[in-house]
Write a structure and sequence with these properties.
Length: 479
């Protein structure tokens, strides 16, 4: 038997929960306001509390903070309506164990949740999260923010609500979406992903909703869209901000009613798929610029998960390298110097870029050594700590972490500014600029040749018109 506290100003809800949990042998204390909570919290030690997030005299989050301060061992379930789910998510960040939506759909869910939380002594689901992450080859690491993201994702997976994932390019938004899918009750149904930015505007609507035969030129047969293919599973809309305004209108309708019509069709069809959307840009700014509908954002942004960029969790880089090498069964070790370079680098491409750097280093070191030093890293990464120490020098151009195209653009602007804008030109700076261009161009063409030859240095040297010895010089000695 457990002492359970209910804090809710709706008498029907309190009465319902009281009868339900009394029948299970638990002792109930009911409060309808913040004042009653203040009085009762000093009288008993509670094992579990059900808190409403909206009370007439106090915010539910304030009550949660007080409860956790006075009785930190007490488990908490937050009760919320659809419009206040984000508040419930915030409550989990402040120490709540879970949340349930009102009105309650299934009595069994409340009973099971109550017993699950009471039987779990530390109120943690870390073991379940780690087990699922291992099954999916999903790296979490030790960063507190990343752990919190996956903790929230695991809880939200059980709720039938849309989720918006925000994060820079390469942070792993689709990986998180797959984690949510496999942690949900839909795990035995399909996970279907579509990149809204990779499909032309003319085809996107057809890809999402399907089309009838003859709907447009080239539509020689009927085709199912991604909503139909997902069935009762999960539809992942990556780069949702790239969808046209016309498509956004139809997405809004399906989110509100579940209804859609195929391109060229007349009959209304229904989708049972759960929507997870992702974007690397702020949709609020897109709304202000007239590129995204505010009503669609409201529907998608029921709950938002933010994936931190790699530069803000650089402490996990050595752990990720170990994780990746083990997953790929690669017997290599990175030296401390190499790891230091990787930790200092800003990683504009995030995890995706780090994986590419690891692959490149392994390809260069293969058949030579199992110890990867800084020399096997790209020029933009190696010796980055020394280079960063020069960023206060205004004469040193800060454009190392860019694509080659952007590099050329920035380099040209810098050299033309020296020639036509500045009153005097320092030839030493010109020579330095030329050296930077030479190094960047050399690195880029070598990387292209190695990619074309799948890392075969001998063939790459032949393609570049240089000797193998010269290629090794550029890779291992020239900086």
């Amino acid at each position: 038997m457990a002492e359970i506290l209910i804090v809710d100003d709706e008498k029907e809800v309190s009465t319902f929960l009281s009868h339900l949990l009394n029948d299970k042998g638990h002792s109930m204390t009911i409060c309808s306001s913040g004042l009653e909570f203040d009085s009762n919290i000093q009288k008993k030690q509670f094992q579990l509390a059900f808190l409403d997030v909206k009370l007439p005299d106090r915010n539910g989050l304030a009550i949660l903070k007080t409860l956790k301060a006075v009785q930190p061992a007490c488990k908490v379930v937050v009760m919320t309506g659809y419009a206040t789910i984000q508040t419930a998510v915030d409550a989990i960040k402040f120490g709540a164990n879970d949340f349930i939506e009102k009105p309650f759909d299934d009595i069994k869910d409340i009973e099971n949740l109550t017993e699950q939380i009471l039987q779990n002594e530390n109120g943690s689901n870390h073991a379940e999260i780690d087990k699922l992450a291992q099954q999916l080859n999903c790296f979490i690491g030790n960063n507190k923010e990343m752990i919190q993201v996956f903790k929230l994702a695991h809880k939200l997976a059980q709720k039938n609500i849309p989720i918006l994932i925000e994060g820079e390019t390469g942070t792993g938004k689709e990986i998180l979406a797959r984690f949510i899918h496999h942690a949900s009750l839909r795990k035995n149904y399909p996970f279907v992903g579509i990149n809204c930015g990779a499909i032309s505007e003319n085809l996107l609507e057809s890809e999402l909703f399907g089309h009838e035969k003859g709907a447009f030129t080239g539509a020689t047969k009927e085709r199912k869209g991604f909503f139909q293919l997902a069935g009762k599973g999960t539809l992942f809309l990556d780069e949702i901000g790239e969808a046209s305004l016309t498509t956004q209108v139809k997405l809004l309708r399906i989110l509100e009613t579940g209804e859609f019509i195929k391109v060229g069709g007349e009959m209304t069809e229904f989708s049972l798929a759960r929507i997870i959307a992702a974007t690397h840009v702020g949709l609020e700014d897109a709304v202000k610029n007239g590129l995204f509908r505010d009503d669609l954002l409201y529907r998608l942004d029921v709950v938002k998960l933010m994936i931190p960029p790699l530069r803000l969790r650089s402490e996990d880089i050595p752990l990720f390298i170990e994780f990746y090498l083990q997953k790929e069964q690669l017997n290599f070790t990175f030296t401390k110097e190499a790891l230091d370079c990787l930790r200092f680098y800003t990683w504009p491409g995030n995890i995706r870029e780090l994986v590419n750097v690891i692959k490149r280093a392994v390809a260069f070191a293969e058949e030579e050594t199992t110890m990867i030093t800084a020399d096997y890293l790209p020029e933009r990464v190696r010796n980055v700590s020394a280079r960063d120490s020069r960023t206060n020098n205004p004469s040193f151009p800060a454009y190392h972490h860019t694509t080659f195209e952007q590099f050329l653009h920035n380099w040209s602007e810098e050299i033309l500014k020296m020639l036509y804008v500045q009153k005097s030109s320092d030839l030493n700076k010109v020579f330095e600029m030329m050296n930077i261009l030479e190094a960047k161009a050399t690195q880029t063409f070598i990387e292209k040749a190695l990619k074309n030859t799948v890392g075969n240095r001998k063939k790459a040297a032949e393609e570049l018109g240089i000797t193998l010895r010269k290629l090794r010089y550029y890779l291992n000695e020239k900086k």
